[in-house]
Amino acid sequence: MTASHSSxxxxxxxxxxxxxxxxxxxxxxxxxxxxxxxxxxFLVGPSGCGKTTLLSIVAGTLQGDxxxxxxxxxxxxxxxxxxxxxxxxxxxxxxxxxxxxISTLTVADNVxxxxxxxxxxxxxxxxxxxxxxxxxxxxxxAGQLPGRLSGxxxxxxxxxxxxxxxxxxxxxDEPTASLDRENGLKVMTLLRDVARDAHRCVVxxxxxxxxxxxxxRMSEMEDGRVFRVxxxxxxxxxQHTETL
Amino acid sequence: MLRLALKMLFGDRGKYIxxxxxxxxxxxxxxxFPSVFxxxxxxxxxxxxxxxxxxxxxxxxxxxxxxxxxxxxxDVNRVRSVDGVAWAAPYFQGTLQAxxxxxxxxxxxxxxxxxxxxxxxxxxxxxxxxxxxRLPNTVFTDEFGLERFSExxxxxxxxxxxxxxxxxxxxxxxxARIVGVAKARRSFTGGPFVFTTYERxxxxxxxxRKMLTFILAAPQPGVSAEEAVRRITAETGLLAxxxxxxxxxxxWWYVRNTGIPFAVGSIxxxxxxxxxxxxxQTFYAFVLENLRNFAALKAMxxxxxxxxxMLIVQALATGFIGYGLGVGVASLVxxxxxxxxxxxxYTPWQLPVAVFGVVLLISSLSALxxxxxxxxxxxxxxxx
Lengths: 244, 384
What we know:
The complex is a heterodimer of chains A (244) and B (384). By secondary structure, chain A is an alpha/beta fold. Chain A has a domain at 7-97 and 162-239: Rossmann fold (3-Layer(aba) Sandwich). In chain A, 33% of the residues lie in helices and 26% in strands. Chain A is built from seven helices and ten strands. Chain A has helices at residues 51-58, 81-91, 107-117, 122-135, 151-163, 181-197, 233-239, and strands at 7-18, 25-36, 40-44, 66-71, 74-75, 92-95, 169-173, 201-205, 217-222, 225-230. In chain A, a hairpin with a 2-residue loop joins strand 4 and strand 5. In chain A, helix 3 (107-117) runs parallel beside helix 5 and helix 5 runs parallel beside helix 6 (181-197). The longest helix of chain A is centred in the last third of the chain and has 17 residues, at 181-197. Chain A is globular. Chain B has helices at residues 2-11, 13-44, 46-50, 75-80, 143-150, 198-204, 225-236, 243-257, 260-289, 291-299, 304-340, 350-376; strands spanning 55-58, 85-99, 105-113, 125-127, 138-142, 168-171, 174-182, 193-197, 214-219, 239-242. In chain B, helix 2 (13-44) runs antiparallel to helix 12 (350-376). Chain B is elongated and about 95 Å long. The two termini of chain B are 25 Å apart. The model of chain B has no long low-confidence stretch (mean pLDDT 88). The interface between A and B is medium-sized, with 32 and 26 residues.
């Protein structure tokens, strides 16, 4: 592992439940989670274990019921909603399972969205979007609509969108779930390079064991808690020999 | 971001065309029918347009410009004697039948003017001279009169014959030679205007004990029309109104006593409602289809205010374009109606402004529905 040990995400005693009364479901129970800058931290576990909820809270798109959440030195649980929204715009890049590209905008326009949200002028945003598309190897697609691209290309566009404003934290939700094996591996290679080159923290929620070799560390969840953290690629390989 | 909002909107062509069509249709109905209504209303006071006078004096029971409650001829002198009145002239108005050269009858609105002053004569002449009205058995008509009188007229060889200056018609078995053509507004009763002197008009018209329809008058310099009206009413017991008062009195009479405003109002309300429903529903469907995109934007750090701004821009852009197209189409249709000359058309400046206000309301409501939905959407839904 080439990462330093400075903390990017620190979650302690996090609780989250949904619903009221008898229908109340405790999704996260006193959960702890940590990720460091320069590493790819995988968050794995069975469906319904609370991965996506934890990811949403870390990303500031959902509020926890209790506990401490510190992301890139910011106490997220104590910030106002507006401050959290501004924090997301500045510091977090998102890669979604369904890509979430806007079908009526060109690839370049889609990639420029985080910059426009920050108030960067449109021309400058488009220039930087094309630069980023160059980095992920699909600059020639800049003027096309996302619907004309393959799944792998669309995910590259989504990665470019996540990188364009150079955020220190990238949140990935099942980034390979909609891709075939070959494209999945390409996307993961790209994400690993992104993490290492710019000393970013990349948090990946995944079900896909094919991607495990790309993890620097891995947090395993079950029943609303992180029950084990595998601290190195070797340990991950050892623990998941059967699935790899 | 606002540029992207417009790109999102224009990119979804099907929805966009539906949205714009709804607003266009609504604008078309809301502009066209009131314009026709206003046009018809202008016909109701056509005599005031054709015969300009600052003051109109009439029987106290008269309410509108076609209300024929005759006065005594001596009432003209009573009005003249009122302090503050510069002049007063008799004015006859009646609906009669005119016999054409081929023997057919056509409805006309006969106007009789004071022979000495020709007060109330149309100001815009197309052919002839007003002085010719002082010649025996002479009349002026309007463009519509020539067109209407020419219908069915043929020469001996069977070719269509155009009635014009120099031709003679008969009114109540008396000869009426056309010596001029005036530009006149159409009458509500549908008959063309025929102008002649008061004395001749009362000869043309079937005899009654009293023949004087109105008295036209003007205030002396330094006396306002309103003051002169007040004095005439007080001293003569007749009803006097300024031209403006008489016009509105006529319009309100038609509004109160005919089903025209109700019929037109119903169409306008239906047009507005249909447009509102189509636009609001389509815009809401557009928002729902893009809900995940809006949620993704929120997740990426777009504030609710910014997304609200995007939705407002999208709704307003649709509204403005739909309004522009609607007014454009209405203008074309109304121009066609005007060319046909069968329907009165008048679009006061207040109408497009009011329609714009309604379109703005429709757009705002559409945007509001979308804004509420998007504001309630948690950005976390993009992870589900």
